[in-house]
Amino acid sequence: MKKPIDATATNPLPPEPNLKRAERLLLELLAIPGVSGQEGAVAGFVTDRLRRAGAPKGAIESDQAHRRSPSGGEVGTLVCRLDGTRRGPRRLLMAHMDTVPLCAGAKAVVRGRQIVPAAKDTALGADDRSGVAVVLGTALEILERGLPHPPLSFFFTVEEELGLLGMQHAKVGMLGHPRLAFNFDGGPHESLVIGATGDYRLVIDIEGIAAHAGCHPECGASAITIASLAIASLHAEGWLGRIEKDGRTGTSNVGVIEGGGATNVVTPRVRVRVRAEARSHDPAFRKRIVRVIEKAFRAAAKEVRTDEGESGRVGVQSSLDYESFVLGDDEPCVLAAEAAIRAIGGNPVREISNGGLDANWMTALAAPTVTLGAGQYNAHTVQEVMDLAEFRQACRVALRLATATEA
Ligand SMILES: [Zn+2]
Fold first, then answer.
1. DSSP 8-state code for residue 268
2. What pLDDT score does 197 carry?
3. Are 407 and 14 in contact (CB under 8 A)?
4. What is the distance in A from the centroid of ligand 1 to the CA of 341?
5. Residue 15 C-alpha to ligand 1 middle, in angstroms?
6. What is the pLDDT of residues 54-112, one digit of tens each?
7. C-alpha of residue 158 to centroid of ligand 1, in Å
8. Position 354 pLDDT exceeds 80
9. How many angstroms does the Cα of residue 372 sit away from the middle of ligand 1?
10. 3-state class (DSSP) for residue 262
11. How many C-beta atoms surround the C-beta of residue 284 within 10 A?
12. What's the CA-to-centroid distance between 250 and ligand 1, angstroms?
């Protein structure tokens, strides 16, 4: 017999999800094609299920992330916001709707405790339909069963596999200002990704002026000299290696210098590749580092001239793929996730990812975000599989988090 839920208690009875339904939902989601930029059918499915479960009018909103993304795309990101039946900080659960190109044409089959691709030449798409199934399934449980919950946002992103373009261009204002955010995009339910590397790259092309180094060196402007002056000044002023300025810290590194062909030519072309990082996820400081580096190269180019006063030129391409981040030891989303994992018998393990996740942009733009497992393994390969036992545990963790009954 089911015990009634006391909505006034601080820690109501944690609900058990309908796992059979969650698995059906997962198989339905795996059957929908949707590589990056073509998430329209997945978004349609998610919207339809939320509406049928009774999501109130106006709760579902989508943005124009695909219009802002340099990659284009069919649809933007999608959110379903629910007011809380109980007070408390808003919680957000999220997953990405797109899959990698290797998933095109994939058919999923259940084999024992796993779901595998039917053909040998495709991946499965469990990355990240497993996460979508966990998040959508949780929303449906809450809507259909009328479970008590704090304010909630269920968030579905696009173009994650294109360097996090969807999340980067998402309209985070529509998320309802979540305080705790949980991203389902991983394997074992016990692993929590609490940080990930960031990526800001600078490619600096220096165009000098070639001349015969023996007969007419004064007619040349050496690209190597320009690069050297710039690097020397950055070094002298403390902008290379470990950087500490005005209480802010970061790092930068000139990683690759390519150029030069002969000792008898004043070098006309050099390419310098630089990586810039700001620690303690401080995007403004990273921008400052990048600006200083650009300026140093442009100033150096002006300094190196031919006898006729002609100087070299510098072209800079800088691209921020995503910010690095590390969540604090006692970040509420991390503690809540750990409590939920322990409550179902698991041993949570904190990890740092070497790749980017939607959590990188979420943490920079909206709320500290921990990334949790959803049962996917060997993503982006033809060996991709879905572990159903891990998936079920992820569904349990998600429902506890969404109903704030994790402890
Ligand atoms: Zn993924």
1. -
2. 73
3. no
4. 21
5. 27
6. 999 899 999 999 999 999 999 999 999 999 999 999 999 999 999 999 999 999 999 99
7. 11
8. no
9. 11
10. coil
11. 8
12. 28
Residue 353 pLDDT: 84
Q: How far is the CA of 289 from the centre of ligand 1 (A)?
A: 30
Give residue 46 CA to ligand 1 midpoint distance, Å. 17
Whose structure tokens read 């980017």? 356
Q: Which amino acid is at 299?
A: A
For strand 180-184 and strand 369-372, is the pairing parallel, antiparallel, or unpaired?
parallel
The set of residues, in sequence order, having a beta carbon less than 8 Å from that of 323 and lying 6+ positions away, is 198, 281, 283, 286, 360, 361, 363, 364
The neighbourhood of ligand 1, an ion, using CB within 5 A, equals 127-128, 185
CA atoms of 156 and 151, how far apart (whole Å): 17
CA of 339 to the centre of ligand 1 (A): 24
Cα 127 to ligand 1 centroid, rounded to whole Å? 5
The pLDDT of residue 281: 57
User: Quick one: what percent of the chain has pLDDT higher than 90?
Assistant: 80
| pLDDT score at 322 | 80
DSSP 101: G
Distances (CA, A) of 100 to 34, 64, 122, 162, 373: 9, 21, 10, 9, 18
Ligand 1: centre distance to CA 189 (Å): 15
The rounded Å distance from CA 130 to ligand 1 centre is 9
- Chain segment 173-224, per-residue pLDDT in tens: 999 999 999 999 999 999 999 998 777 788 999 999 999 999 999 999 999 9
d(CA 280, ligand 1 centre) in Å: 24
All structural domains of the chain: 19-196+325-402 (3.40.630.10), 199-322 (3.30.70.360)
Higher pLDDT, 274 or 67: 67
Strand 199-207 vs strand 248-259: parallel, antiparallel, or unpaired?
unpaired
